[in-house]
Amino acid sequence: MVLYREAAAKTQKDLAEGDVRKIIEELTRQNNRMAIIQQIAKSINVEMTYEEIIDEVATPLRSVLSYDLLSFCLLEKGQLIIKASIPKEQEILGEGWVLHSNNSAPWKAIHDKRCFLRQDIWHDSHKYQEDEHLRMVNIKSAIMAPLLVNNEAIGALNFGSSKTYAYSENDFIFVQQLADQLAVCINNARLFGEVSRSKREWEETFKAVPDKLFLIDCSFNVLRYNKQENLLLDNDGRENKCYHLIACCGGDRQLCPAVEAFKTGVSAVREVTHPSTRVIFNISAYPAYNENSELCAMVVYVNDVTTKRRMESQLFQSAKLAAIGEMAAGVAHELNSPLTAIIGNAGLILRKTDCKDKHYRLLEDIKNCGQRSKRIIQNLLTFARQDSYSFGPVSLNDVVETSLYLISYQIEKNKIAIVKKTSSSIPVVMGNKLQLEQIIINFLLNARDALEGVSEGRIEICTGVIEDPETESPAVMIRVTDNGRGMDPGILSQIFNPFFTTKEKTKGTGLGLSVSLGIAQTHGGRIDVASEPGAGSTFSLILPV
Ligand SMILES: Nc1ncnc2c1ncn2[C@@H]1O[C@H](COP(=O)(O)OP(=O)(O)OP(=O)(O)O)[C@@H](O)[C@H]1O
Ligand SMILES: [Mg+2]
């Protein structure tokens, strides 16, 4: 009896110890699961991809819930798509797999908004759409939990096992808690991804604009700029003023339409010529308002229109020249014959007149003036393109040599130094040598005239091959630079006008450059000019190769 009581007491004690151990084990398991959920929540951040998220949870989960297939799928435009899965290499039910809504277990979990357990899939009386595929990857039991955010399902979390009855009803709570936590993380990552994508799209659009596009605040600080690499934005904001960094107005803010737009609150557009570089900018300023309808910033769009304006003025110039040329050509033809008679007859009489004769000087004057008039007419005819010139291969170095040979005496007698820098590798161009010489002679004579009264006058003439920034193709050029008086913008804008001259009547006809421009254009080229009052000028003849 004593023995029995002792035995009974021992069994009771054993039982109690077994229960306690079980309870402790269960509690430890629950604790581990809670710890894992917390750890997962901490380690997932919004910048992670779906693949990185599943990698982060896959390993710690194995210690608390066994699985052979782990995946999550998300609702996207009415479709349920598997976004990440373990094992990764598995194609069936892997990343990108679409689970159609009719008769699918994850869909059921989503619809019911609760975990769904399948203990023996292969022998389940109800067949689901994915069962065949589960069998192919040897999954016999599964647990599906909806991913809920604010009680709205965004997808499902799925565990699969190669054993039947691998999951118990007790695993429900853990899987649902895990799914709730993951749902928040995945949703945040998804939203962050969407925001980043649209931000990136906007930035790319912003950067794709070839012109300058920037955002300034009311104090003219640049907040954003589409070509950041060109700008060093100073974070303390002091050096970020647009008129220092971008300086389309050359520092003169009164030229900027943004000033006007800040005052009036409506957009403003203005064409501004940079005071020193002479680059012409079309500047548009568009006011930006904050949510309280207060003007807080300005979007400024700057477009370099120098080439466009130059082409427009050259077109205008050509049209004008064509009209004047036509008229002049008619007059020139009419004058040619009487002038030939005047020069010829004056020459005849001169030959018969003694140079001591009192009329000799007058006759000489008649002949000289006649010849000068004939030269003008010749120029007019060239200008009107009445003269036909044949084209052939021409070396620009030869053009330079001949031009210098013809007029170097006139230049050197004025004590002007000539510096010649010809490129040996310059290719020949198709053109008319005489006409090209005419351009260079005119450049040189103009340079000589600009050096009148300048001590240490110097003319540099050079040839070379360039990458023409206007056509973005190779071109050849002859450049004549002088350190003469230069031109102010008022004169510079008129030099190609026929008959425009600043020289005395006897010295200049004002046709030199307009004729030169006409010749350059018939050769498919152009003339570029850079000049600074008091410092000198550079005339470049640029011809396509
Ligand atoms: N290198 C230069 N430096 C300064 N001014 C120049 C230079 N080249 C041209 N110019 C200005 O351009 C004007 C027009 O030049 P253009 O060659 O067309 O006529 P011109 O030299 O006056 O007369 P011509 O018909 O005899 O050439 C000149 O009168 C002068 O004011
Ligand atoms: Mg001239």
Automatic annotation (TrEMBL):
<dbReference type="InterPro" id="IPR003594">
    <property type="entry name" value="HATPase_dom"/>
</dbReference>
<dbReference type="Pfam" id="PF02518">
    <property type="entry name" value="HATPase_c"/>
</dbReference>
<dbReference type="InterPro" id="IPR036097">
    <property type="entry name" value="HisK_dim/P_sf"/>
</dbReference>
<dbReference type="InterPro" id="IPR036890">
    <property type="entry name" value="HATPase_C_sf"/>
</dbReference>
<dbReference type="Pfam" id="PF13185">
    <property type="entry name" value="GAF_2"/>
</dbReference>
<keyword id="KW-0808">Transferase</keyword>
<feature type="domain" description="Histidine kinase">
    <location>
        <begin position="330"/>
        <end position="545"/>
    </location>
</feature>
<protein>
    <recommendedName>
        <fullName>histidine kinase</fullName>
        <ecNumber>2.7.13.3</ecNumber>
    </recommendedName>
</protein>
<dbReference type="InterPro" id="IPR003018">
    <property type="entry name" value="GAF"/>
</dbReference>
<keyword id="KW-0597">Phosphoprotein</keyword>
<dbReference type="Pfam" id="PF00512">
    <property type="entry name" value="HisKA"/>
</dbReference>
<dbReference type="InterPro" id="IPR005467">
    <property type="entry name" value="His_kinase_dom"/>
</dbReference>
<dbReference type="InterPro" id="IPR003661">
    <property type="entry name" value="HisK_dim/P_dom"/>
</dbReference>
<dbReference type="InterPro" id="IPR029016">
    <property type="entry name" value="GAF-like_dom_sf"/>
</dbReference>
<dbReference type="GO" id="GO:0000155">
    <property type="term" value="F:phosphorelay sensor kinase activity"/>
</dbReference>
<keyword id="KW-0418">Kinase</keyword>
<dbReference type="InterPro" id="IPR004358">
    <property type="entry name" value="Sig_transdc_His_kin-like_C"/>
</dbReference>
<keyword id="KW-0902">Two-component regulatory system</keyword>
